[in-house]
Design a protein that fits this description.
Distance between the termini of chain A: 30 Å
Number of domains of chain B: 2
CATH superfamily of chain A: MetI-like
CATH topology of the largest domain in chain B: D-Maltodextrin-Binding Protein, domain 2
Oligomer: heterodimer
Largest sheet of chain A: 2 strands, antiparallel
Strand content of chain B: 15-25%
CATH architecture of chain A: Orthogonal Bundle
Structural class of chain B: alpha/beta
CATH class of the largest domain in chain B: Alpha Beta
Radius of gyration of chain B: 24 Å
Shape of chain B: globular
Shape of chain A: globular
Order of helices and strands of chain A: HEEHHHHHHHHHHHHH
CATH topology of chain A: MetI-like fold
Number of helices of chain B: 16
């Protein structure tokens, strides 16, 4: 097979890459640099003072409560990833196999729910999770007594909102992976004497890994920035990183602190993903060696 | 048979070209509406840019002034007074003419060069209509003998109680906030410094004077104790009000009349905001106030000054008092005659001077950033 070697001197290549590069530079790299610059400034009487100073970073690294909130955010994001994958995989599997005939209709319904405004969806959960809400009404009619559930304004309430909002991402990434699997490979496994369960674990699951990883990354990154759910469904009693950043920017009018905490959150997210990727690559190379 | 999108298009006679033509038509229609049906902004002789809280932007308030003065008013709503100040301080002041915000922030804007000082003599007619407590020289908006803006709305911060569940006497002190019998029945309003101040007062700390480390430690202790009993820290007024009505919250702390009067106006007259009794000689209530200032943008707009006179006039003050989102008191005494008995009852006008007498005025707190940092730390450790 002949492959073309590309050089950065190739004007066609430069012209192809330039638009995306400019967009990334303007809307990602430059704002990130500005955020970093801001974190080295100070505020005085609620006004930004342009002085190069490590005061904010000293505060970030010396106050443990910032790290408590960051750790809580990462833990919530990881739990959210696990729950989303556990819900999304069987649903995607059913869509790709048993519910194939209705797959278009179901996908439209899912997309409709996905595109509904996040504020509406989050506030809608209040009506369900409230002590006098729909969930407790149903449970009371099932004989479980009044106010059987007390989930509103708890971390569990936050998690329900986060999972509801994010589960659609792995659902579609896993579905796309499963839909691309060659059915003959599964049939070949059966012909070789594999049980349904073994064929699933030996063929289907490994081949759906790209969708799983992609969905997990999407859920993790978006969970790190969860704002509405902890505020509305969590009742603000166990704040996550985004609320900490909002408080710093808006209530305390301490923009340098908000900028520093933003960078910390981005760094934690990037490091977590790098760590996850390294672990997976080691696992994959181990399997390949066997 | 699996129906493909193209198939659907053919059957319904809708193709991509038709859709694009339709969209183009819609675009032209929108542009046409923009040119021919343009609101005042394009045709008015003058324009004003106004940064304000919700309520000040009501068409019933802005429209008559726009027509009368042939001016177009563009509104930028703020959701946080501190955020509004920061935006103006960061350079947006040059784009605005007027600002309505919490009085400590308006008071800061004069010395900070964001607002121009007003000459009280120019507003003598307006001050003459105010209750005596708000007349010139009105101390909370004064700096070195110069005034920044005029007061526009006010109320008090105290426990907001549903009297169907609790007697008002129970809340003659903030003690139930820390009582185990009220565990998971208290709602703190996440409105910046508003919930911190009354709790500091309960701890015996006056937050409006410079605080030493011992006083800040007391603030920390009282916040920690309050968080233990609190069910939710809510920023959204509707959620807080819903919880209060259905009894899942027995009291809202940090809101006061701002969270109450609109409910009372809708018939929930069993909801009341009161001011607790003084504790060890320290008043426990807080009077909050909003003010409107003229922004220093180099234009020295006369029409902006006219708007300031307009917004505090009796008829407009009454409109500003009763808005869709919240209902509040106004400083104009002449406006009182315009309220019906039901409106006066909803605004708890029979109680307002009792509340005033037992309250501190919400001014610039010297250690507010320390207290906000403590709030953040204690919330994280919860």
């Amino acid at each position: 097979m002949r492959t073309d070697s590309k050089s950065w001197r190739d004007p066609v290549l430069v012209a192809t890459v330039a638009p995306l590069a400019i967009v990334m530079l303007a809307f990602f790299v430059i704002p990130l640099v500005m955020t970093a610059v801001l974190s080295f400034q100070t505020t005085q009487f609620y006004r930004l003072t342009w002085t190069w100073d490590l005061k904010v970073w000293t505060e970030v690294f010396s106050k443990p409560h910032y790290w408590t909130i960051m750790a809580r955010t990462v833990a919530m994001a990881l739990v959210c990833v696990v729950i989303c994958l556990l819900i999304a995989f069987p649903a995607a599997y059913a869509l790709a196999t048993r519910l194939r005939a209705y797959n278009a209709q179901i996908q439209i319904l899912i997309i409709f729910a996905f595109l509904t405004d996040a504020v509406l969806k989050t506030f809608g959960w209040i009506l369900v999770l409230d002590k006098s809400g729909v969930a407790n009404w149903l449970l009371a009619h099932l004989g479980l007594g009044p106010e059987a559930l007390n989930l509103l304004f708890t971390p569990t309430g936050t998690m329900i909102g986060m999972v509801y909002g994010l589960v659609v991402y792995p659902l579609f990434t896993i579905y796309l992976s499963l839909a691309r699997i060659d059915r003959d490979l599964v049939l070949a496994a059966y012909d070789s004497g594999a049980s349904r369960l073994r064929a699933f674990f030996e063929v289907t699951l490994p081949l759906s890994r790209p969708g799983l990883y992609c969905g997990a990354v999407l859920v993790f990154v978006l969970s790190l920035g969860a704002f509405l759910e902890p505020k509305v469904l969590g009742g603000g009693t166990a704040p996550l990183a985004s609320e900490l950043i909002r408080q710093s920017f808006e209530t305390r009018v301490n923009w340098p602190l908000g900028a520093a905490l933003t960078l910390v959150l981005i760094a934690i997210g990037a490091l977590s993903l790098a760590l996850g990727a390294a672990v997976l690559m080691r696992g994959n190379s181990g399997r390949a060696a066997r | 048979m699996k129906r493909e999108p193209a198939d659907i298009a053919t059957r319904t006679g809708v193709d991509r070209r038709a859709v694009l033509k339709g969209m183009g038509g819609l675009g032209l229609a929108a542009a046409g509406a923009g040119i021919f049906g343009m609101p005042r902004s394009a045709s008015a002789a003058e324009s004003l840019n106004y940064m304000c809280w919700e309520g000040y932007n009501a068409p019933t308030i802005l429209d008559p002034f726009q027509k009368q003065k042939d001016v177009a008013i563009s509104v930028d709503l703020i959701t946080d007074s501190a955020g509004g100040f920061a935006k103006l301080a960061a350079g947006a002041a040059k784009d605005f003419d007027l600002v309505s915000s919490d009085s400590p922030w308006i008071a800061r804007m004069g010395p900070a060069g964001i607002c121009r000082y007003i000459d009280d003599k120019d507003f003598a007619e307006q001050y003459a209509e105010f209750y005596p407590q708000f007349r010139a020289p009105f101390a909370p908006l004064q700096f070195e003998g110069k005034a920044t803006g005029l007061p526009t709305r006010w109320g008090w911060v105290g426990p907001t109680v549903n009297t169907k569940f609790d007697k008002l006497e129970t809340w003659s002190s903030y003690a139930p906030v820390f009582d185990a019998a009220y565990k998971d029945k208290i709602c703190l309003l996440d409105w910046g410094d508003w919930p911190i101040m009354p709790l500091a007062l309960y701890a015996g700390v006056n937050p409006y004077v410079p605080l030493d480390q011992a006083a800040l430690d007391e603030v920390r202790k009282v916040l920690r104790a309050a968080f233990k009993n609190t069910r939710a820290i809510v920023a959204d007024l509707a959620i807080a009000q819903k919880g209060l009505i259905d009894g899942s919250f027995r009291a809202l702390i940090g809101g006061g009349t701002y969270a109450t009067s609109s409910l009372r106006m809708k018939g929930h007259d069993y909801i009341q905001s009161i001011v607790p009794e003084p504790k060890n000689g320290l008043k426990q209530g807080i009077i909050w106030m909003e003010a409107t200032g003229l922004i220093e943008n180099g234009r020295d707009s006369k029409v902006a000054a006219d708007f300031l006179k307009y917004i505090v006039s009796p008829e407009v003050a009454k409109q500003l008092s009763i808005t869709e989102a919240t209902c509040n008191l106004v400083p104009n005494a002449k406006a009182e005659a315009l309220f019906s008995d039901a409106e006066k009852k909803a605004l708890q006008m029979d109680y307002m001077w009792t509340a005033w007498d037992n309250s501190h005025f919400h001014t610039v707190a010297p250690n507010i950033d320390d207290m906000l940092a403590i709030w953040q730390e204690e919330l994280a450790a919860r």
